[in-house]
Design goal:
By secondary structure, the chain is α/β, with parallel strands linked by helices. The chain has helices at residues 11-16, 21-41, 46-56, 60-69, 81-92, 109-113, 245-250, 264-270, 336-345, and strands at 94-95, 121-123, 133-137, 142-143, 157-159, 182-184, 191-193, 206-208, 214-216, 231-233, 257-259, 276-278, 285-287, 300-302, 307-310, 324-326, 331-332. The strands form four sheets. Strands 2-3-5-6-8-10-11-12-14-16 form a ten-stranded mixed β-sheet, with no helix packed on it. Strands 13-15-17 form a three-stranded parallel β-sheet, with no helix packed on it. Strands 1-4 form a two-stranded antiparallel sheet. The longest helix is centred in the first third of the chain and has 21 residues, at 21-41. The protein starts with 10 loop residues before the first helix and ends with a helix. Mean pLDDT is 76; it is low at 1-21 and 62-74.
Length: 346
């Protein structure tokens, strides 16, 4: 009896042994064909049927799927070809000193075709066969931003902070990426004016243009169109000639984080609904304005790292919602007990 099943001793090697996935699957298909032929022609034994039921049958669904599709799930290319080409064109315009894009079509055949597996690229899971690029997060690059990004029609998250696009303006075509919800271009070496085309980014929730000290804006009317914006960071951006600022900010109903290096008297004309204000490390001088106490919705205020003098204004007794106050690293001279007394009243 044992001798009759000797030919199948190598079954585990056939199914689980060395070789690539394609080779194992080909062997499995061949084995199923031969086994079926032996059973039909009556050359198989009862032991052979046992082998079929106990060992091979669990693999039958996989084999059928392979035979009908020609490929396995692991080899499915999720990336859409048009979007893959757009990313490769985007790469051509960049200088990659640190190998950040080394995975973009250089590792093996599968990675070459599936851009969803590339570093910094994220795709949605719409179905099991194809996925759109929805997120790009790339750092430590130089060069230019290619308009090929416009081919990524489902892009919602774009983080190009920490790159060096020196001597480059922010491309106007970014304003055409209408599905963007998150845009971070901080500390990227941009100069010139913020494009007015940003007004088209009506789905934007988060905008960070901070630490581009050669960046400026003389007209902030575009901000009033971003009605869903909840986080805005313009730290180190030159706004000394900006117009339309007060109306633009007050038209943003859910803006709860405002971080900017503007002078105080502008800030208090913007909105009475701000909840988070960070003006730390902006070389602000003079005393803390009374107007802060009039922003009754204020929960977090950071004024640390400036050159402020005096003490806490009496108007802070109105700040009943204030949860966090950071005045460290200033030149305040008010006695500690006086300071704490004002806070306790608030």
């Amino acid at each position: 009896m044992v001798n009759k099943i000797v030919p199948f001793q190598g079954l585990s090697t056939l199914l689980l042994g060395r070789g690539g996935k394609r080779a194992k699957r080909a062997n499995l298909l061949l084995f199923l064909i031969l086994l079926t032929e032996m059973i039909i022609t009556g050359k198989g034994s009862i032991q052979l049927v046992h082998v079929f039921l106990l060992v091979v049958l669990p693999y039958l669904n996989l084999a059928l799927a392979l035979s009908s599709s020609g490929v396995g799930d692991a080899e499915i290319i999720r990336c859409i070809e048009k979007e893959r080409q757009a990313l490769l064109k985007f790469k051509e315009a960049l200088i990659d000193d640190y190998g950040s894009l080394s995975s973009w079509g250089t590792n093996n055949e599968e990675d070459l075709n599936d851009c969803c597996k590339w570093e910094g690229v994220h795709c949605n899971n719409h179905n099991n066969t194809t996925s759109h690029v929805t997120m790009l997060e790339l750092h430590y690059l130089r060069g230019k931003i290619s308009p090929s990004l416009l081919e990524l029609h489902h892009l919602r998250y774009l983080d190009l902070s920490g790159n060096l696009f020196s001597e480059n303006r922010i491309p106007k075509f970014i304003g055409s990426l209408r599905r963007l919800q998150y845009l971070n271009l901080a500390n990227a070496g941009f100069y010139g004016a913020i494009p007015q085309q940003f007004k088209n980014l009506s789905n934007l929730r988060h905008l960070d243009l901070s630490f581009n000290d050669m960046l400026s804006s003389e007209n902030l009317e575009w901000l009033s169109h971003l009605s869903l914006l909840s986080h805005l960071d313009l730290s180190m951006v030159s706004l000394s000639k900006a117009t339309g600022w007060a109306q633009s900010i007050s038209d943003l109903p859910i803006l709860n984080e405002f971080l900017s290096s503007l002078i105080f008297n502008w800030l208090f004309n913007f909105s009475r609904s701000l909840a988070y204000i960070d003006l730390g490390d902006n070389e602000l001088k003079g005393s803390i304005p009374d107007a802060f106490g009039d922003i009754v919705s204020l929960t977090n205020l950071r004024l640390s790292g400036n050159q402020l003098e005096g003490g806490l204004p009496k108007s802070f007794v109105n700040s009943s919602h204030l949860q966090s106050l950071d005045l460290s690293d200033n030149n305040l001279t008010e006695e500690l007990h006086e300071f704490l007394q004002k806070l306790s009243v608030a």
